[in-house]
Amino acid sequence: MAWLVSLVGVGLVMAALRDLFHTLWHPTRHAGLSRLVMTGMWRLARRLRARRRVVGLVGPLAMVTVVGLWAAVIILGWAIIYWPHMPGAFTLTPGSRAAQQPALLDSVYLSLVTVATLGLGDITPAEGWLRLVSPLEALVGFALLTATVSWVLEIYPALTRRRVLAIRLALLRDSAPTTQQLDSVAGALLLDSLATEVVRVRIDFTQYAEAYYFHDGEDHSSLAAILGYASALAQRGQAAQRPDVRLTGDLLANALEDLAGILDQRFLHTGGPSATVFAAYAADHGRSVSQP
């Protein structure tokens, strides 16, 4: 029976590690803990019609919540592993009052100390297998800290790329390039560079899906609000006289269609064309699609 309880703890630890792995290093369409938490918090904020400042906190707060849940599940899982063997399989320092406490409380305490790599030493494993398992928890705690830092360092560059594209499109809209200016070598280079940036954003939504739940802020930095203008630029490029401009116009249009497919598949589920997906994306972020 004791081993069955310990196996439950092993299952909890493995579930947390699996979710961490799929969130950071092998993103999939399967809804893990991080996706469920972020989706739930985002929908709650939208349903309550919270102010933009509040909605803007959903992404960071959801990341903190997910990391806290990972840590809690790992600590609880290892505590359950220790619990059936506490205190008989452990050595207590002289004068320690650990044995006078409930076994579960001592197990949670030991798990917290070990995952934080404090190494206080007042409760130490005595049996051979526990002497191997306990250091593994310290390694997992170090991996969790490293993963948290890596997650932050991955998400925020993706947000920067998205906002840079949005601001660039907003500046182009304000500049109002003429048909003659767009139907030139410079226009072809412009459309090609925009297509490249759209593809990068598309990859970011694939690799770092959690970035979707970060609010972009003002309209000029909101990709959700400005994508309509990108579509208009693509159409103008496709209708140009120069073949190189038409080619890059097709490239931008295909990149936008691919982006719409990812947004619809992973987040919006409209089943409609690109214009419908972009309108739903803007509405989900509290914006309206910018008209050319």
TrEMBL record:
InterPro entries membership: K_chnl_dom
Domain (Potassium channel) ranges: 74-153
Membrane-traversing stretches: 57-83, 138-159
Protein name: Ion channel
Keyword Metal-binding: no
Keywords: Membrane, Transmembrane, Transmembrane helix
